[in-house]
Amino acid sequence: MSSDEPRLECGRTLEELSDYLESGREPRDAHAESCPHCLNALDMLDNAGRLSRDLLESDASALPEPPESWLQGIFETIALELRSGRDLPVSHPDPRVEVSITEGAVHALIRSTGDEVDGVYIGRVELAGEAETPEAPVRVLLTTSVRWGVDVAERTEVLRQRVLSALSRHTELNVTGVDITVADVHGYRGDR
Amino acid sequence: MSGTDPAELSAAVRAVSGVVDVFTAEGALVGIASAVASAVGRDLGRDPVVADDELVAARIGTSAATSTPDVARHVADTLLERAAPEARVKVRVARIS
To answer: What is the Cα–Cα distance from A132 to A113, expressed in whole angstroms?
Structure first.
């Protein structure tokens, strides 16, 4: 195991978790099943696997070979996003109380919400702005890949609305916009 | 106030609607200890809620089907009812699923 493998705050590597996922989460890993970093990572890796399956189901011969660093890049992005990061405040009337949501939990929420949109895969998530300050304006920056043939404008609007809805329900962020960059197209079929 | 026994507080937090998990305290030592225990097939006993006369802290996971701020505030209120009068209460949401 290389020391520069992407590693979560709890010490686990994403490769270890990927192997665990591939084994059907058996035998049960007590730490991974009770650690928020690992559980969020397992969700993300599962969604990344969905994209891989999409690619395999498509006419792979029509696609250029993915670079060797592709999977490593996904791991590094996920590891970075899953860091607890900033504490995003939640209001409470009692001054003795401090309630917050970790930035990592919000990243994972946005990613899982986005990956539920058919034809869209979330590549990168970023909260731009002083998200740790109550009521400060925050923009959500998303980099995505869309499946070949989908209506990109329609899919990105669905994605935008779902992310806004999830953040409205689960955070008190003052989200002023969701900026979506479509950086890639996957599942290209040459016979279409 | 019904006491600050961590096990009792953990049970009270788990009983809040919308809480799907209560995680152990953060920190590298906890992570390493847990990983070692896991590697030898043991699950560490845990009282996830940390409590003393000055601070009561919980790290939770919430259900995506609920409102996370409402659930987290409810958890804070639950801990406040049981905390020492001058104690601070800290609730951190680490996962929404």
So the answer is: 22
